[in-house]
Amino acid sequence: MLKLKSNIFSTSNLYNYYKLTFYKEDLEHLLTSIIAKITDNIKCLAIINDNVQQDIFGGIFFRSLSKVPYYKILVEDKEDLQSPNYHTLSVIRHIKRSSCNAYILLISNGEKITRFLRFGDKYRVIDTRAKFIILHDHHLFRSDLHYLWKKIVNVIFLRQHGRHYELGLFRRKQVQPWYDISTVPFPTPIRKIFIPHRLNTWHQGKFQLDNELFKDKTSNLKGEVLRVVTFKHIPGTTESGPKSIRVDILWTLAEVMNFKPNVYEAQFADLEKWGRKQLNGSYSGLIGEIQNGNADMALGNLYYTPYYLELMDLTKPYTTECLTFLTPEALTNNSWMTLILPFKPLMWAAVIIAMALAGFVFYALANYYHYIVTSKSKPTKKKIIIVQEKNKKVKFKPVQEHFEEEQFEGEGLYLFSELSNAILYTYSMLLMVSLPRFPSGWSLRMLTGWFWLYCILLVVAYRASMTAILANPAPRITIDTMEQLVDAKITCGGWGEEIKQSFLTSLDPAGQKIGLKFEVIYDIDEAVDRIAKGEFAYYENFYYLQYLRVKRQVEEDSQQKENNTHAKNNNQEIKQQKEKRNLHIMHDCVIHMPISLGLIKNSPLLTRINKYLQWIIEAGLVKKWLNDAIKKIISEEITEEKQNSKALMNLEKLYGAIVALGIGYFISICILIGEIIHWQYFVKKHPYYDKYNMTLYYKQKKLLKK
Q: Do the record's keywords include Membrane (predicted)?
């Protein structure tokens, strides 16, 4: 019995030995044949196997890899590949960084393979667009794994058939095995049951058919329907439907790649738009449709940022958009500054300095000329005046008699001989008022002539600039730079937490300050209304801000027409409407953001779409489609600007003149009050004051000055 048991044990071991031996030899030859077919198309090879499949790779296989670099990972039986150990994970990541585009997964446990593929897809540690060779196992085709085979499409499954042994005491019969080679049925969608697509058969050391094992399945999608999620957003889509730049790109891609796009909007797309993270960790809106696998492609203003790259695949950026703020215009009217607006501050400073110096120069030359004239005048005559004082003797007092000043001064010198007159007549020349008398002295005459030329040029320039200001619409006070927005006492905001984080992590100090007062807002209508009230600035792309501004203006015009028909009943509403501010798009761009199409994570279509997008960009079609999408908005905006830029003269534009007149009135009244005070408290109390003989008071005052 012991011997029989020994014989039985020996026979069983012999069966397992032959089975394993032939199995290893067959699989090694098959893998060698497969690698020989794809050697020219792979950069490097990753081999992941367990202890059971360890001895399959022999000298024949490795000799076929003489020109191909490879990595080999041995997975322990107790290791869970959905949470691999540090050493295994580091090698897998190194394989990804090395751009290895071929994987051989020889693991006996199919469940372990599924866990590894789930892990690689979720954390992107494997290249799902690479070529995969996997042992056939029914665990791989469960319904909860169907999403993997929408991404890993360059895969072949190896299934062994026909190995039977009939063992006896004297003979052994062996049936030659064969392998069935199949793949996923991409682009045909996987329904409830996964049915592999048969590619080839390997029997007696060779392939039975001359089929390509890793055929490119993305060049022709064979008329399959791809679900495309989108929402209304300029310039992505228009209000009339999804017919703008990205849809045009979609139609072009559909024609080239032979698929039918099924464009639809996510649930509550008007509110959710791109989507928000829910309490359970899932996403709503466009991102939610992509993550749930309901959509194959996403059309929206998807910024090429790490935030979106983490949630989905992004294609090559096909355009860039200027991201900036929609800000309110200031209600403060600067029409009162009309008189000083023609010149800039530096110009006014130069004019004031020139005027001040001119007055002093005229005064200095007049006095110098006066000195020359008086030094050549006749000597003074002496007179003797008899002075008789009361109860005293008569005295003779000599007095020098001066000739009248005009006789020695020279003609015209009186215009500039006093500093106040010099400044007054200098300013009068600037106002094109002629002098009452031409000055004497060639130095004064030459200076007067050149100063007249200066005054003519200055006045002509001032008048021309003033005419342009009065003819054009009143200048608007706007916010056009990040620094001005930081200084403005308004709140900034935009759609989504990721926008706020981008400002907070910005290297620009102004951007960080904006991030501190940035408010996440999801209601666009509320945001526009707050901007009109002058308390908010909204962050979006330039074209969408143009659309919001034109839309609000159209709504205001229609509302104003309704109010005009019921003006008596709606006076208060009209008053509130006038208090609202105009909307202004900040001139400076915060950033020029690249825009992409969105695909499901690890999509097999990414490489092919990037290739066609590059051709579309080089052909200039993107620029044309963009112009077509915003043409209507631009035309409406130009019409609105023409209506607002009519050169109408009104009282508002003459506020500067009224302000100047008011200043004159104010100064005159102050001087008048000062004169009255001086008359009451100084003149009337003077000892020589006599209201009946005022001449005596002024004569005595002149004598005191002399």
A: yes
